[in-house]
Hints:
This protein is globular. The model has no long low-confidence stretch (mean pLDDT 90). The protein is mainly alpha-helical. A hairpin with a 2-residue loop joins strand 3 and strand 4 (101-102). It has helices spanning 3-18, 27-33, 40-48, 82-92, 104-107, 117-137, and strands at residues 25-26, 61-62, 97-98, 101-102. The longest helix is centred in the last third of the chain and has 21 residues, at 117-137. It binds a DNA duplex through helix 2, helix 3, strand 2 and helix 4.
Amino acid sequence: MSPELERFRTRVRRLVARIPAGRVATYGQLSALAGHPRRARFVGRVLRELPPGSDLPWHRVINAQGRISPRAGEARWPGEPVERRQSRLLRAEGVRLRGGVVDLARYGWRPEEDGGWIAALIEEEEAEEAAQHTAADEP
DNA sequence: TAAATGACTTAGG
DNA sequence: CCCTAAGCCATTT
C-alpha cells in the first residue's frame, strides 16, 4: 500500500475516533474530511479491517442514504449479524432509525461545530511524520 | 494485463 | 420506497 494511502487510512481512523456518541458520519463525509472525496469505498475498506474488539466507534459510520450498509457474506459478531449489532449500538446511544433510516439532518456529525480541531489533527499528524523523518535521518 | 469485487455515491425511473 | 445504471477507486483474481 502506498504511503499516501497509509496516511489516508490513518486519518480516517482518527476521524472515526472523534465522532461523538449519538451522531453518525457517512463514508463519503469521512473520505472528504480525510482529504479525498472520492475514496468513500476505501473508508469502508478501512473499517472492514478493524479487529472485532476495536475501540473505534465504527458503528457510527453509515452510508449517504442514512442506512446501515449491508456487508457482503454473513459477517456476524459476537453471534449476531454485524448490521443488527450496529443498529442496536446506535439506538443505545440515542440515534433513532425510522424504517432503517437515520435522519442525517438531525443525527449527522457536523465537525465544524465542534471547534477547529481538524486543523490541529493535521498539524499533529505532520509533526509525527517530521519526527519520523528526523529519527530516520539521525543514525 | 484484464476482469471482477466491494462497509460507496449520485441520478433517474 | 424500491430498483438500476453508471461512475468511482484500491485491491484481488
